[in-house]
Amino acid sequence: MSRHTGSHEVVRNLQNALEAFLADHRKSAEVDPEWRQATANASPDEMENEPGCGCDDCLVAGQLLGRIY
Fold first, then answer.
1. Is 18 domain-assigned?
2. Considering 8, 33, 37, 61, which has the largest number of Cβ atoms within 10 A of its Cβ?
3. 26, 32, 19, 24: which is closest to 62 by C-alpha?
4. Is residue 1 part of a domain?
5. Structural domain tally of the chain?
6. Quick one: how many helices (H) and strands (E) in the chain?
7. Ramachandran assignment for 56, one of left (phi > 0), alpha (psi -120 to 50 degrees), beta (any other)
8. What is the per-residue pLDDT across 36-59, written as a single tens digit (0 to 9) for each?
């Protein structure tokens, strides 16, 4: 069940926060040698489609971002 409350500002702020969270995780991961080694063989498409750094928290944030309207 979903409800549209009409609270566009709250939804926009939540989307912005999730996008910032994902960007921050990706930025931190990009300087981590272990993450770079683990993703060295990933294609550009795979990297583009991976939310944030690909950790469990980023996967949940990516799912939330895709479900919020």
1. yes
2. 61
3. 19
4. no
5. 1
6. 4, 0
7. alpha
8. 999 999 898 988 888 999 999 999
Domain that holds residue 34: 8-67
Residue 69, pLDDT score: 66
- In terms of C-beta density within 10 A (0-12 exposed, 13-18 middle, 19 or more buried), how is residue 64 classed? middle
pTM: 0.82
- Paired tokens of 9: 């500002």
Q: What is the pLDDT of residues 4-48, one digit of tens each?
A: 667 888 889 999 999 999 999 999 999 999 999 999 998 989 888
- Report the C-alpha gap between 3 and 6 in whole angstroms: 9
2, part of any domain: no
